[in-house]
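1st attempt posting a full record on here, be nice pls
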Amino acid sequence: MGETHDAAPELGEPVLAVLEGLPDATVAAGPDGRMVFVNELAAELFGYTREELVGRPINCLWPERLRRRYTRNMELYFATEHPLRFSAEAWGVRSDGTEFVGEMSWGIIETATGPLLLAIGRDVSERRAAEARLRTVAALGERALAGAGREQLTGEARERLREALPLRRAELRLADDDLPIIDDGAGPVELRLALGAGDELVASFDRSIDAEETAFVRAIATTLAAALTRLRTEERMRHDALHDPLTGLANRTLLGDRLEHALARSTRDRRPTGVLFIDLDDFKAVNDRFGHAVGDAVLAELAGRLKAAVRPADTVARLGGDEFVVVCEDVDCEAATALGRRMEQALRQPLAVDGAEHRLTASIGIALGDDDADGLLARADAAVYRAKAAGRGRVEVWCA
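the predicted structure (as tokens):
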């Protein structure tokens, strides 16, 4: 430390001892801009030895893009009658050319041989980066709470991870789904983070990441997993509100909505909508003989047969009990009748449930039109009664 003292004798031993013991980087420079004192922390921060810095212009510690402004500020400090002392953000440049942002206190101190510029500060780049990462996680959480969709959330997570880390590949493995976030090929370093409830993030990087960066990845992944879980829950709730819990078919609410839309298009395009009302014949006997659990299993199997028999765009709904309705757009009487017979034949085939074979038939009523939904359903229902009266296991078309 003697060599440094010799370079700045005007500071005095007591002052030098205080500056050397400060927990921050400390540099002193004369009015000519040359450094007269550098403590060990400052030398380490900038990547030099103290001997390399003492006597050199202080502007070698400033990025080239800022040297003119910082030099002018220094000249103003020395020219001020009552020297300023204040704190401000400042940028520094290390010996290897890398820049960092610091929190610096600048001021002029009077010594026995004249004024000196004293700068005391610390590198806050990592802290700023950590704060930025926290803001990123918070922003992602806010967007999730605001109802952002899956694509928007994963896109946001991808961009933020790429900005902050050398991410090459990332996949969020959820309990019921796998969600790729980014895939630019595997990197040499892999990170696996268990997120609970069977969820996991698997990511690879170009380099090792520290504890702070790992915490950031975990926070992003946890936020994303929680948001996607919420979205799945909301989707499931919407699905459950519109579908029959036993068969998974549309319920009355969804049937009404689909039928109204179909009729609106029928009116516009002048093409009829068909409604097929399906009522299983003597289904009560299945429940009475085998119990409701077997009856439910039979209904679920028959619902699947109905789905397989119709066109992809047709809507199959369960009204309740053993009654079903199919809505078909853009059909004529011949096509609707053919569909009804196909469904009746599908339902007639024997099926085995719980070791017992069941043979059922269905009465099917068909009505076509482009008017009100209730009227169309009523006419299809009336056609069902006609089919039952004619012997069951039949298809009848309502004729106005």
